[in-house]
Amino acid sequence: MITEDVDRPIKEALSPVGGTVLTHEDSPIAVSLDDSVEITSPASMPRSASPIDHPLKEIPLTSPTQELSSSDDIDEICDVLQDCTIFNGVTYLGTVTVNAPKSETEIQRNMVDLNEQIVEGIKVSVSIPSCSDGSVVMYDGATNTVMKKYEVCRITFYAHGKPESNEAACFAFTWTHGDSIESSIFQCHVFRCDIPEAVGQVSACFMKAFQRVPKSLTASVNGELPPETDLSNNVGGTQMFLLELTMEIKEDDGKGGFSSVPRDRDFFKLRCNVEKQICLTVTQLASESQQKLEVKRCFGVLIAPGRHVKHSDMQLLDMVLLGSDKGDNGNCFVISGQWNPKEPALNRLNMETPREEKIFLTVAVDLVVRGIREPIRLLVETHVKVFPQNERWWYFSKRSLIQPYFLHLKEVPSSDNEPNFEVSNIETSGPIDRNRLNLTLNNLASYIRSPSITSIDTLTPRDEYNSDGDEPLLSGTGEVSKDCTEVELESWSDVLGKWSINRSTRPKQVPALVKQGIPEALRGEVWQRLAKCDDSSVMDNYRILITKESNCEAVILRDINRTFPAHEMFKETGGGGQDALFRLSKAYAVHDTEVGYCQGLSFLAATLLLHMPEEQAFCVLLKIMYDYGLRELYKDGFECLYLRLYQLNRLMEEHLPQLYQHFRDKGVETHMFASQWFLTLYTARFPLYFVFHIIDVFLLQGTETLFQVALALLTMCKKDLMQLDFESILKYFRVTLPKKCRHEEVARNLMKLAVTIKMKKLKKYEQEFLAFKEAQESADQYSNELERLKCELMRSEEEKKRLEDQLSQVKDMLKREVQKAESDNQKNSAIINGYKEVCQRLDTEQQVAKTSLNQLMSVISGCERCGELAQKMATNSNAVSNKTKKAGEDNSEAQLLHRITELELELARAKLGQVEAECKNQDLTHKLCSTAAELHVARSQAAWPPWISKTLSSIKEAAVHKTMVQRRESAPLEPTENTTV
């Protein structure tokens, strides 16, 4: 099987070649053309072949070369509005479900089976469109009503029967039925022409349908407008809508709610084993005059670890919130999805990442928008870092991920008056950091006027670059002539001769010649010499790299179909140019594992392939990426790209202050138009002549060329840009500006202006950016430190409150103990006083009794009779008294000993109680001192009220005084008791 050249005429394509395969640009479609058959006039065909008078009828709408042999009238069927060719006299044999839609063997087998089984099928007419934008329509042969439509973009393979076989009059194609890859069903539809010779013409029409692009695109490339008679059926122009997606990740805060996680530079900080929510807000940034897109519903939010992941590897989240909100910039659509971290498919996002590593998180949201036929998918790829579950975040500012999307919609006819679109393309420049892009400084230098040049309108008339409508210029547009003057050849011949002798040193004439533009015939050689590509080992390594696999292959395949579609070398799907571009892009992705493949890299690679073989292009690509620093723009979350955009901001402020202020007033930021310029070296939008001249100067000078070209473009278009609003400015950069550069004279003047712009302050602006970055990081650190100190202060306040509570409890306890001691002291004093009173009363009574007895004895002793008796009684009394006294002394001694024992026990108990009270007092005093010390430390960190210090001092003095009083009261007891003993 060999690939068919798209420019080969139909007549040559139908020549006898073995199994020619044609692939469609949007899907892997193949057309098998085995033999050519000369179409004879229907009049000369056997009338018995079909009951229809005109078996082959064609409606020529696209090319006047499509002529029919029949001179009969043409029947028109207008149920489907499209440029087409209608074939009558066709029998529909049926459809069969197949598993291998691209297998010609299986299709031929199904064709044989149905042709043998079906003798009389359904008589139909088949309408084949003239371009890939239409549909194959099957009409009922009798009523001319539409039976079925098959979009060309869904046709996977086409084949016709083998010549000189029973199936020579048959043809078939496989069609994909279903909305997704997982649910797709491949059907093989088989037809049989009543006249076998008509199969060749059917095959030619299918080939044209697969190869031709819609009229709107061809008109854009050729700079022509369709006739006024066709405007009613022509597809509308492409419109660009700017959507902004804001993403936050929230985690369960343990209080029944969710709080946002911090985002540090280019990655989110997550904790493992914590429930999460992903909150997405989609906002349309549009002017008042632009149509508003209404999001009807959301199919779902899908996430997966890694980047460039397959749809089948993504995990659907449970939707918890859907709704619209009226934001500052317009209507917002809010989506929230519940993320269960314990899902097995998301295990990588629930494991702690090493200290110096980050992992990718891919988030996709599918939206259904009113007026757009198919759902649109917005894809976000960002870094995340997973920390332990108990990780605590200090102060952090709320930073959401903001990513713009440029939605290119193509207006299509609709039965009602409502606008109807289909998605042409969705582009994004990656996440943006508005804080970085809006950095400003005080003006440090006076404004410098840019040199005046001829207006671009004098070279490109306005009616010419407006002739294509709103269609953007296809990349790869423009013819670059290889002719050059004799003077240029002589100059370059001398320079290359000197350069060949000493390849390490550039001749002094090189800069001047390069700035004027390198002749096209010499570009490949001169580019290699400017980049200093003389390492043969790199070419050998390239042959090894293309044999290895890369996880970026799917992305590369998707991008190369959009790379230089207007150029002959790359517009054929599966052609040699696209194969070489695929190998080159994959080789770089395998070689540079840190950057891999980035969107837009294919444009630069295609530019190099137009001038040199693959191996040499790979060497130059490596030099541009590494030595010229282009890969730095893709690293570290586009940190270097932010630097370049900031430098461009400052250069605009210096050279074009009015335009700079106008952009600020309209809300236009440099990343909206300059990101693609810098990332692709202007290769994605502009004509080839201008692109090649930019690469010439870039390889000579380096990075400063990017700023010179940007300022030159802005200077030449300043007058137009000053009159436009936000939406019109973006459209101007996307559509109008590239078209203005189609003329070589315009491109030459632009580069002549660009090389005259001095870039003396780039280093200064870089230092300013780094200073701002450092200041911002320092501010973040100070903010974090401030928040940490706030947290410490809060903890100190809590500790202070706790200590105050403890102090209050200690004071209450001490107060109770003092009151209890005072109460016991009063009770003991009352008892002692009572005993003293009793003793005093008894002594008084004893004295009275003794006095009464002595008086009685004196009276008795005065009587003689009683005197003796009294004397005797006194003697006896004395004896008894002596005995009693002795006995009493004995009893008193025993009582005294018993009393001493009791007093010793009581003293021991009193001493034990005193020791316990002193120990308790010492504990309380120790606690009080430690509390006072802690409060003193806390008071040194924060201002304490004076009443707290006075209270603590008074409590401490009272405690010490109480201890001394108790010791003084208990001290005299021991000598008294010892004396008693």
From TrEMBL:
InterPro entries: Kinesin-like (IPR022164), PH-like_dom_sf (IPR011993), PTB/PI_dom (IPR006020), Rab-GAP-TBC_dom (IPR000195), Rab-GAP_TBC_sf (IPR035969), Rab_GAP_TBC_domain (IPR050302). The keyword Coiled coil applies. Residues 517-702 form the Rab-GAP TBC domain. Residues 772-824 form a coiled coil. Residues 90-193 form the PID domain. It holds the Pfam family RabGAP-TBC. One of its GO terms (molecular function) is GTPase activator activity. Keywords: Coiled coil, GTPase activation. SUPFAM superfamilies: PH domain-like, Ypt/Rab-GAP domain of gyp1p. Residues 41-68, 459-478 are annotated as: Disordered. PROSITE patterns: PID, TBC_RABGAP. Gene3D superfamilies: Pleckstrin-homology domain (PH domain)/Phosphotyrosine-binding domain (PTB), putative rabgap domain of human tbc1 domain family member 14 like domains, Ypt/Rab-GAP domain of gyp1p, domain 1, Ypt/Rab-GAP domain of gyp1p, domain 3. This is Rab GTPase-activating protein 1.
